[in-house]
Every structure is written in structure tokens, then in C-alpha cells.
Design brief:
The complex is a heterodimer. Chain A is mostly helical. Helix content of chain A is 78%, strand content 1%. Chain A has one domain: Sodium/glucose cotransporter (Up-down Bundle). In chain A, helix 7 packs across helix 11. By secondary structure, chain B is mainly alpha-helical. Chain B contains 3 helices and 2 strands. Classes of the chains: A mainly alpha, B mainly alpha. At the A-B interface, helix 3, helix 4, helix 7, helix 8 and helix 11 of A face helix 1, strand 2, helix 2 and helix 3 of B.
Chain lengths: 491, 89
């Protein structure tokens, strides 16, 4: 019963998404800019929800409640600070400037924007290369997750490889056909779906349990959760909470699929509205979603085989069809995040690696074609990697947010300090990446420094390197500094 | 935009980051209407952040980024055209 409902909902969703994709395809011009950025015409609702869904989808449904279940409700504060405030401020500091520059010089990727300013093909390739090193394993993890989930859902009737393969095939089909416009539309539906179902689940469980005070009261009575109500714990130290909020908050802004959304707004007004509504949207989702995880612990529910707590509490206190709906929705959300990553990953590859280094003279039509071929190659490669799921890639995917966070400060310095030089920026990027990778793979480099994570330390190192090396070197004649500092105006 | 305003908004941003987690309630477990007081503080703080961001978009948007020299011309038209586009999915 549950199985057929879940499968029905998933298949129904996929078909629905395909219809949306086809509608989007009919509206699409055959240019790379339209394929990647919907020609920079996105409105407030779509921008808000596509960013929201890309950033938060599967994480909010699964990992967030799991975290709150294991460690307590402080996770609400960490996520609120990280996504609701730090990311919002970066949306202005990095995102708005990127949008203005993109409008003016038609940039499609971060690497393109930096490479142009510093007149350096190598810098452009470096930014894209570093991003792909982190993105590739992260996409692979999504496929591993989807394959595992399908196998568990069908109780082995669909094997892991077949499940991951089917999902990959669908993703390729969808992304190649729909492009950014279609993805943004399905994201919008998903974001709204996610918000509404989370609140229904929250109220449903509350009514079943007997109210807010009873639900929280169970936390005081259980030894496992007696510490949950006091702010802070052995796990939630101030250093850890801040390190996590800072690295993930900055990392998110450099994640290709999020960073590329900085370019897509149709007008300044769209960015302003999204920016002001953002913290409210975050808190509206985090509080109910993570409290469900916390209560599951207080109510003494076991995590079970799926490794996720949300399905457990939903099956315990709500109707079968509703639990199935939420789980299917969460899987769909996971796929749509992968769609976005696949699209931006392929844009970094074709625009910043293929075009500058292999075939410089591309017509718009041909670039559009190569963009779609890039999607296929990227997806197939991550699929094959997911079949083997090598330990190194797994670890890289797991640390991806920290890896992207290393890019943020050098990029901000480049955007705002006229004295930044090409050598300085390259030194900052390479230095922080080498340090962060070493902290993961070289045993003598520790992962924590007086409670602060290597992610934060690496960010500071990148900042220091960018500034000191820029200061010690002079800018090259052909650099185009004025591009970032003159004539930028939204009015 | 004056330098004082620029610095002022920078401080506002830092304060918003600093007190999203109510450090002064560290270790307390006072319950208000069934939830710890520190969760209510956080909810209120996020609403305040939205309000502050909204005021920022009205009064100081562009600070530190836009320069006064010249408007931004795009392939699709002038900046007045930019304001009109979008807002439909």
C-alpha cells in the first residue's frame, strides 16, 4: 500500500516535471545564455523559491531533522544564522555586484567574471576547476542517495545500480530539454510544496501528541534529551556553531548552482524583494522541520533502517498517504537539486574549460549544443563514479561546503579592493585549497584549531594570502580593473 | 552615500549576525509557551532581520557597490526597462 502510493507519487511527479520541462523548452531561445540563465529574466517568486529549493530541499527534509534528533534544537539557530542571515548578506555583497556585472558584460559563470577582470584564462580555468573538484563528488553523492533510496523503497526490486541509472537518465533528459527555466519552475513548485507540507506535518504531529507543551515536556522527562532545552551542549560549542554557520554560509554562496542564481534576476526590484523576504522564509521552514526531529527523540522513536528520522515520526503520528507524500516529495526535491548542480557544473565545464582551452571560436548555436552535451558527459561520469563510490570522492563530497567556502573571501577581495592582483588572487585560491585539502587527507594537518574548524582557518589563510601577495605584486597592464569599479549603477 | 552611512550599515550587518544566536541565554532552559525562550528570541530576530533588510532596500540599496558615474546599459535596453522586466514566472 505505502509502496504503491510512494511509487505512484514519484512517477506522477516525474511526468509532471517533464511536462513543465517541455513547456519551458518551447519558450527557450537556442543560446547558452538562455539555457543556463533563462536570459536573466527571472521574477521575485521564482527567484526566491528556486534559490530556496536549491539550497535547502533534501537537506531540510532529511539531514536537518536528523541533526536535531541527535544533538538537539540548537541546529535551528545554526541554520538560521548560516542561511537566513550570513547567506542573505552575501547575496547582497557578492550577488548584487555579480548581477550588475553580469548585466553589463554578459557573464554566465563566476570564473568568467574573474578571468575577464584579471585578463587571465588560467584564472578562469582555475576557478572552474576548483569548483568542479568539489561539485563532482557532491553530485555523485546525490546519485548514491537516490539509488539507495529507490532500492530501499522497492525492497530490492529495483537494484541500486538500476535505481541510480534511472534517476541519472531522467535527470539528463530533463536538464537537456528544460534548461534553467524549467528547473526554476519545478523548484518553485517544490519550494512551496516543501513549506506547506512541513507545516501540515508539524501541526498534525502536534495535535496527535497533545500540544506544544506536551511535546516539549517529553524532552524533560527523557534522560537522552534532558540537556536539549538548555542552549549549548558538549557538541554545540560556540566555536563549532560559528565555524559551521560561517563555512557553510560562505560555501553556499560559491556553490555553482547557487552562485549562478545571482545572475538570473530580471530586475533590481526582484533582488531587493527576495533579499528582504529571505530570513522569514528560512525561519518558517527550519523551526517546524527541525522541531519534528527533536520531538522524535523525546518521544523515544528509533531512527530505523532508512537512517532518517522524519519518515519515522510521520509514519508514527500521521496518515500513511501523507507520510508517503512527504517522502516522495523529498526525493523529488533531492533530484531537482541535482538537476541544478548538473546544469551549472556543465556550464563551468563548457564555458570556462572547453571554450577557452579547446575551441575558442564558438557560434551561439554551437555553444548551446555543447552545453547540452556537457550535461550528458557530466551526469554519465558522476553515475559511473557512484557505482564504485570510492572513499576519496565520498570524503570530498562530504566536505564540499568547506571547499567552496575557501573561494569566498578571495572573490570578495577581488570584487571590492582595487589593489587585488592576478597573482594575489591565484595565490589566495590555491593556498587555501591546498591547506583545506591537506586538513582532510594529510594526517599531520589537524582538522580543528582550538575548537575552530579547518574550514574557517583556511578561509582566513586565503584572505591573508590574497591581500599580502596582491600588496607585494603589481597588477599586469592588460588587467581591466575599471570594469569592477566604474560606471556600475542600478538606477 | 556618505562614509558614515556605509560604516553604519556594516555595523548593522555584523550585529544581525552576532545575535542570531542569543549568547546571553547560554545554558538557560526557560520555557515560554512550550518552547525554550532562546528559540523565540531567534524567531523574533529573524523577523527583525527581514524588517532591517527591507529598510535597507528602501534607503541604502547599492551602498558600497553602485558608482555614480553613468547608468548601466544592457543588451535588453535601459535601466528603466530593467525595472519593468521580470515578475512573471
Amino acid at each position: 500500500m505505502t509502496l504503491s502510493i510512494q511509487l505512484g507519487i514519484i512517477v506522477g511527479y516525474l511526468l509532471f516535471a517533464l511536462v513543465i520541462g517541455l513547456v519551458a523548452y518551447r519558450m527557450t531561445e537556442r543560446t547558452a545564455e538562455d539555457f543556463y540563465l533563462a536570459s536573466r529574466t527571472v521574477g521575485t517568486v521564482v527567484l526566491l523559491f528556486t534559490t530556496f529549493a536549491t539550497l535547502l530541499s533534501a537537506f531540510t527534509f532529511f539531514a536537518g531533522p536528523n541533526m536535531a534528533y541527535a544533538w538537539g534544537p540548537e541546529w535551528i539557530l545554526v541554520m538560521g544564522l548560516m542561511d537566513g542571515i550570513i547567506f542573505a548578506i552575501l547575496w547582497y555583497v557578492i550577488g548584487y555586484k555579480q548581477w550588475l556585472l553580469g548585466q553589463r558584460y554578459d557573464y554566465v559563470t563566476l570564473g568568467e567574471m574573474l578571468g575577464d577582470r584579471f585578463a587571465s584564462r588560467e584564472l578562469r580555468g582555475l576557478v572552474a576547476g576548483v569548483s568542479l573538484i568539489w561539485l563532482f563528488p557532491y553530485v555523485m553523492l546525490q546519485q548514491v542517495g537516490a539509488g539507495t533510496a529507490l532500492e530501499a523503497l522497492t525492497e530490492g526490486a529495483v537494484s541500486y545500480a538500476a535505481g541510480a541509472g534511472l534517476i541519472t537518465l531522467f535527470m539528463i533528459l530533463y536538464v537537456v530539454v528544460a534548461g534553467f527555466r524549467g528547473i526554476a519552475w519545478t523548484d518553485t513548485l517544490q519550494g512551496a510544496f516543501m513549506l506547506v507540507t512541513t507545516w501540515i506535518a508539524f501541526i498534525w504531529v502536534l495535535v496527535a501528541v497533545g500540544g506544544l507543551e506536551t511535546a516539549t515536556g517529553t524532552l524533560q522527562n527523557s534522560p537522552a534529551t534532558s540537556e536539549f532545552l538548555a542552549l549549548g551542549s558538549a557538541n554545540y560549542t560556540p566555536q563549532w556553531m560559528l565555524s559551521t554557520a560561517i563555512t557553510i554560509g560562505f560555501g553556499v554562496a560559491m556553490f555553482p548552482q547557487v552562485n549562478q542564481r545571482f545572475f538570473v534576476a530580471g530586475s533590481k526590484r526582484v533582488i531587493k524583494r527576495s533579499f528582504a523576504l529571505w530570513p522569514i522564509l528560512c525561519v518558517l521552514l527550519f523551526v517546524p522541520s527541525f522541531l519534528l526531529g527533536v520531538w522524535a527523540q523525546g518521544l523515544g522513536l528509533e531512527m530505523g533502517e532508512s537512517g532518517n528520522i522524519l519518515p519515522v515520526i510521520l509514519s508514527e503520528y500521521t496518515a500513511v498517504w501523507f507520510a508517503a507524500l512527504v517522502i516522495a516529495g523529498a526525493m523529488a526535491a533531492m533530484m531537482s537539486s541535482s538537476d541544478s548542480m548538473l546544469l551549472s557544473g556543465s556550464s563551468y565545464f563548457t564555458r570556462d574549460l572547453y571554450r577557452p582551452f579547446v575551441e575558442a571560436d564558438l557560434s551561439e548555436r554551437r555553444e548551446d549544443l555543447i552545453a547540452r552535451v556537457g550535461v550528458v558527459c557530466f551526469a554519465v561520469a558522476t553515475f559511473f563514479a557512484s557505482l564504485y563510490n570510492p572513499a576519496t570522492l565520498f570524503e570530498l563530497g562530504d566536505a564540499a561546503f568547506g571547499g567552496f567556502a575557501q573561494l569566498a573571501l578571495p572573490v570578495i577581495v577581488a570584487l571590492y579592493w582595487r589593489g587585488t592582483t592576478r597573482t594575489g588572487l591565484i595565490a589566495g585560491i590555491v593556498g587555501s585549497q591546498v591547506f583545506y585539502l591537506s586538513s582532510l587527507f594529510v594526517p599531520v594537518i589537524p582538522g580543528a584549531y582550538a575548537g575552530w574548524t579547518a574550514g574557517v582557518v583556511g578561509m582566513l589563510l586565503g584572505l591573508a594570502l590574497t591581500v599580502t601577495v596582491s600588496w607585494a605584486t603589481t597588477s599586469v597592464v592588460e588587467e581591466r580593473r575599471s570594469r569592477y569599479f566604474e560606471g556600475l549603477s542600478g538606477d | 552615500m556618505s562614509r558614515a552611512e556605509f560604516v553604519g550599515w556594516g555595523i548593522v550587518g555584523l550585529v544581525l549576525c552576532m545575535f542570531a544566536i542569543p549568547w546571553f541565554l547560554w545554558g538557560t532552559e526557560t520555557l515560554v509557551a512550550g518552547l525554550p525562550l532562546w528559540i523565540w528570541w531567534h524567531v523574533g530576530w529573524m523577523l527583525l532581520a527581514s524588517l532591517v533588510f527591507w529598510v535597507f532596500t528602501k534607503r541604502a540599496w547599492g551602498i558600497g557597490i553602485e558608482t555614480d558615474a553613468g547608468g548601466i546599459q544592457t543588451a535588453n535596453g535601459t535601466e528603466s526597462g530593467l525595472e519593468e522586466r521580470g515578475d512573471s514566472p
